[in-house]
Specification:
The protein has 376 residues and is an alpha/beta fold. The structure holds pyridoxal-5'-phosphate.
Length: 376
Amino acid sequence: MKNIDFILNNLGEENFESVSPPIFQTSNFRFSDFKSFQNALADEEKALIYSRGNNPTLNVLAEKLAALEGGGKVLLFSSGMGAISTAILSAVKAGDHAICMEGAYSWTHTIFTQILPNYGVDAKMVEASHILDCISPKTRLVVVESPLTKTFELIDLKAISDAAHAVGAVVLIDNSYSTALLQQPFDFGIDMVVYSATKYIGGHSDVVGGVLICSNEKYSKIFKKEYLAFGSVMSPFNAWLFLRGLRTMPIRLKHIAETTHRVLDFLRNHPAVESLLYPGNSSKEQAALFEKQMKGISGLFSVQFHNKSAEAMEAFVNSLAFFQMAVSWGGHESLVLPYALWDEQKHSGMARFSIGLEEPETLIADLEKALTCFIA
Ligand SMILES: *Cc1c(COP(=O)(O)O)cnc(C)c1O
């Protein structure tokens, strides 16, 4: 990785030395003569022709994200799911076998269980511990999320990459929890990296977007086919918001990790808490994978409480004053998500927390007060 401050601050020479980049809010780009238009069309991947393909504001963001990732080329999407669906559909066709790690993001799960089967793809959700056994010569794609964003289980990225490559399959990782700052999947042989930029890259809960990073060769293929054809491209204004978010991502994640450790330490010793779910915490094997693959934790974790009553959970979340109740995560505001919203039986007494930028004392005091709901 190049010097991080250089990556985040350098805007190149073409932008009038502005400290913040201009937003090229344009749909198309004009040509002064026939020949230059013809040359651009012959080089569609690089040329500025139409903003569903290339746009200078998006290109600034794409270059920074590739530099942070330590290589590859970046495609930018209107949502994380735009990136994930485009990457998946670029990698499989009818008759292929595809595997997705059980517990992956719910809409990725939907692609595997409700969409790919309609197009003749043998798509299977597989528990992390069985993925290696399920990779066969017909496998073309393995999708992993490590850590998962509910149970925070990690998977051995190098082992999965090696097994997939041995049969000619590619591996896609959803790296949203970690960002490039905490986990560099290319180091472990992963082929395609996707992000819900909505989370830590944006960081302010004000914009939805997605990122796909892959080799130059894959980029060329996907750009000319799925990217331009599906067209779920990021807008110039949203690219500008992500550039703005990116500048503070290192300092935000540092603060968030510090606060998260403080909050976890508080919860670990609290009598209402049965267990804490965060990367590396569940076993020796998981701790070893955490050491090998990640540089630290971010701000998302789950808590299993002893008290499994739905009423206690309802009282707990209702009495939190600073943890807001909402989907998504990775913003400036701390959030709580009780899983009983979806299934009161299966996930009783379990909630996910996203730590934001508040002072740790504020959050701990808020929890301390609300946790009495589980004990009374
Ligand atoms: C939010 C999320 C997504 C989807 O991203 P969008 O930007 O909402 O489309 C994908 N994966 C994970 C792990 C997420 O948390």
